[in-house]
Amino acid sequence: MLRTVAGRRNDSELSDLERRDVFARQILQVTTVAPLANLVNVLSMCALLAYVVPPGHDEFRLIWGTAALLVVLNSVRVWIPRVILKDRYRPKHTTRYDYWALMLEVILLGLLVVILAAAMLPVIDSSRKLVLIATFAGVMGAGAVALSTVRSIAVVWILVHSIGLLAVILPKGTTEYTVLSYQLVVYTVTLVIGVVYLWASFRSRCLAEFAAAAERQTVSLLLDDFEGGTRDWLWDVDNTGTLSHTSIRLSQISGIAVSELRVLSLRGLLDRLEVGSTKSGRTALAVIDDHLERLMPFREVVVPVRAGGVDRWWSLSGQPRVTETSEFLGWRGVGSDVTEKYNYERRILRLAATDGLTGLPNRRTFGTELVAALGSLRPEEQVFVGILDLDNFKSVNDTLGHPVGDKLLISVAARLNRASAGVICARIGGDEFGLIVRESRERDGYAMLAHYLEALREPFYVNGNRIEIRASIGYASAPADSDDADTLVMSADLALYAAKSAGKNRVGRYSPALHIQASERASALQELGSAIEARQFELYYQPQVLAENGRVEGFEALLRWNHPVRGLLTPRHFIDVAEETGLIVPLGLQVLQMACTEAATWPESTYVTVNVSPAQLISTGFGERVLDALELSGLPSKRLQLEITETGTVDGLGVAELDRLRATGIAIALDDFGTGYSSFESLKKLPVDILKIDRSFITELREGDSAVVTSIVEVAKALGMQSLAEGVETAEQLRLLRGAGCELVQGYYISEPLPAAEVTEYLKGAQGKAQPTAVSCGVRRPCGWSRR
Ligand code: C2E
Ligand code: CA
Ligand code: CA
Q1: Cα 649 to middle of ligand 2, angstroms
Q2: How far apart are CA 436 and CA 669, in angstroms?
Q3: I need a labelling partner for 319 at 20 to 30 A (CA). Which of 187, 209, 624, 731 fits?
Q4: Ligand 1 atom closest to Cα of 643?
Q5: Domain 230-345, architecture per CATH
């Protein structure tokens, strides 16, 4: 513990060594003033011998003068080695010896003066007496002052004089001597008090010096110790503002020589290290300057420095050093190189702000960026908040496994990031990405968002799989829809959901009406379970016919919910909810049973095809359920077809089950072909009999632009599969499909899905009207084919 105020210490706290040291200084002090004191003594002795000792006392004069000279010379003997030879702190016995020598000298000199007074007072006249007494008092006082640093000697000096003189004058009994005696006593007491006071102040000065020296020593030790093992250092600025403690460590770390450091101020040092060249540096300097000026301690101010040509970060703390009496002594503080820690913290902050998998900003950062964008919105500007969600990503995960799913996400993120010039693109959920676009016109905002879907159009290749991924985007804009970040995100979410329901792979704008749909969805979520139990579902059947002649081959079973309040609902209102909740499994079972039971009443040549979701396919005992349904309904297995999607099967999962079912005679159709991730390699391994070309290809069919469909048909043929075109809406499409060699067609052009009760009647009519050439009529309601 450092002591800044030495006065607090007392003798008992001094170590032996210190006590000895104080003593040595006391003696030294006396011997230092000895020449002056001796000069005074010699002069006064000369005066006394010359004037006070009257003529006729030559013998006394000689003896007394010689004795006094010898005593004075003794003090010179002490004085020479100590003062001239600077032989200061000699071993203790020397100091002790000097003390006793001095004591002896003092007593002898005092006695000599008393002897002089005793011998002369009776024989000299009153004017000589006056000189004698005055000189006596002067010698006594001057000696007391000169000896005051050694209290005991000074007191002995006073007492020898005082008691000696009293012994001489008191017996005389005259009035003048009696008065003189009183004066002498008062003088003696005053001198003793003065001596004690002088001694005390000398001693406390000594102690203060000790404390200061000890403190310096401790600080040095601490500094060396402190700097020994760390990247930290102490700095010390004196009251003139220059760096007084300049360590090797500081020199090493700053790249500035110790000699140069010594003439620098703290501020000068920071300027040398180019702290002011950066914004953060200037901010830190302002803080430090302010504290230096107000003499306020500062803590861990982080400053960027350029030390030895390298950019580093230092942390500086400082405390003003002020005495109890408010005397400013300077500053002292610690500095440390915190570069690693600082970089680490910044990395942590960066990590906290980014998504670990893709490296894109994360949901939290998305939120703060959105709030910032809304806060700095200019009057003519709009902020578009988009949420992009990958279509069918869950099936990629389910079928190809999570490692592939993760790699796909990384590639998707990289592509989105590349596409986002000036747009903030963050990963805000599993396969959800947040987009913030600033544009002044709605049209530009929309185009910017649509451009992201475009960026994903090219297929991805992950672990040998060719993956076609599509996405849907929902968006809302500020200030039109709201200027609150949370509300905007929620609205964009609704728009996304709507975009998905409307068929995916599109950009959907938020509209207040979506809230109604959202509540429908919420109610579907609540009601679905009980609706399955209450058997509120029925099947509609859409015919699948030969492209060549329109002969009905079978029907696809399409699910409808006969909702007690909302009426007949198509799958887009509930199928996602059913899949998300897993209710698709019991619902799918009902569908199978219904489809088989109803199809069993149809003509023997007509099959039924049933949609099966991936979740259903991989649910335990799926194959058993299918076979049970057939057995229960009595439908032969060759009249049942199952429609699966690519995403539901590409992985080994479910394939074995399909193989088993196929072996019993059930046909498998691959639904929505071309929309998922298609690889002809994996297609080869799939147990599929029919390839259903997705409606989007049929919609795009143009005269002279049927290459895609033609090649799909070719591939199907090569793999021994039949091809079926979905969503055929025009005679033109039908004509082109026939030209491409597609065997089966299905769509509104042939017939919309029919209620179960109308199937038999439809079959009768269709059979009667089947004409191979009918399709060439070119009208929407074909001559030969019935379209309801
Ligand atoms: P999907 O399997 O691709 O079924 C074809 C959908 O296209 C049906 O819609 C059908 O009504 C519609 N469609 C048929 N012809 C045309 C046309 O010419 N133009 C247009 N624009 N659309 C046409 P739906 O019935 O709303 O079914 C939608 C989807 O719901 C189905 O798509 C299927 O994926 C799913 N789904 C339907 N029923 C079931 C089911 O029982 N189980 C499962 N798991 N999913 C089902
Ligand atoms: Ca289907
Ligand atoms: Ca389909």
Answers
A1: 15
A2: 41
A3: 209
A4: 2
A5: 2-Layer Sandwich (3.30)
Measured from the Cα of 672, ligand 1's closest atom is 3
Q: Specify the CATH class of 355-514 in words.
A: alpha beta
Report the separation in Å between the CA atom of 571 and the middle of ligand 1, taken as the mean of its atom positions. Answer: 7
CA 468, CA 392: separation in Å to the nearest integer?
A: 10
CATH 3.30.70.270 region(s) of the chain? 355-514
AA identity, residue 181: S
Nearest CA to ligand 1 atom 30: 571
Both tokens of residue 48? 């006394």
> Residue 787: is its pLDDT beyond 50?
no
Q: Which fold has domain 522-766?
A: TIM Barrel (3.20.20)
Phi and psi of 559, rounded to 5°?
Answer: -80, 140
Q: Please answer whether residues 14 and 213 qualify as being in contact, where contact means their C-beta atoms are separated by less than 8 angstroms.
A: no
Is residue 332 within 8 Å of 235, Cβ to Cβ?
yes
Are the CB atoms for 116 and 67 separated by under 8 Å? no
Query: Given a cut of 80, is residue 682 above it in pLDDT?
Result: no
**Res. 582: pLDDT tops 70:** yes
State if residue 591 touches ligand 1 by the CB under 6 angstroms criterion.
yes
Q: What is the pLDDT of residues 366-405, one digit of tens each?
A: 999 999 999 998 888 999 999 999 987 888 888 888 999 9
Dump pLDDT digits (tens) for 23-42: 777 777 777 777 677 777 77
- The residue-averaged pLDDT of 524-548 equals 94
Nearest ligand to the CA of 673 is 3
Q: Which atom of ligand 1 is nearest to the CA of 726?
A: 15
Give dist(CA 734, CA 776) in Å, integer: 9
Q: State the angle between helix axes of 151-169 and 126-146 in degrees (0 to 180), rounded to the nearest 10.
A: 160
Q: Where in the chain is the domain with CATH 3.20.20.450?
A: 522-766
Nearest CA to ligand 1 atom 25: 558
Distance 558 CA to ligand 1 centre (A): 6
Which ranges in the chain are annotated with CATH 3.30.450.20? Answer: 230-345
Task: For residue 83, count CB atoms less than 10 angstroms from its CB and return exposed for 0-12, middle for 13-18, buried for 19 or more.
Answer: middle
Cβ of 754 below 6 Å from ligand 1: no
Calculate the alpha carbon distances from 609 to 8, 29, 643, 763, 788 in Å.
Answer: 103, 121, 7, 16, 20
Q: At residue 81, does pLDDT exceed 80?
A: no
Q: What is the structure's pLDDT at 216?
A: 67
- CA 97, 103, 106, 112 torsion: positive or negative? negative
Structure tokens at 173: 């009994």
Q: Which 3 state secondary structure label does DSSP give 639? A: helix
Q: Are strands 382-390 and 432-439 parallel, antiparallel or unpaired?
A: antiparallel
DSSP 459: P
Residue type, 375: G
Q: What is the pTM of this model?
A: 0.48
Residue whose C-alpha is closest to residue 695's, from 731, 729, 668, 647: 729
Cβ–ligand 1 distance for 694 under 6 Å, the answer: no
- Residue-wise pLDDT tens digits, 221-263: 666 666 565 667 888 888 888 887 677 788 888 888 888 888 8
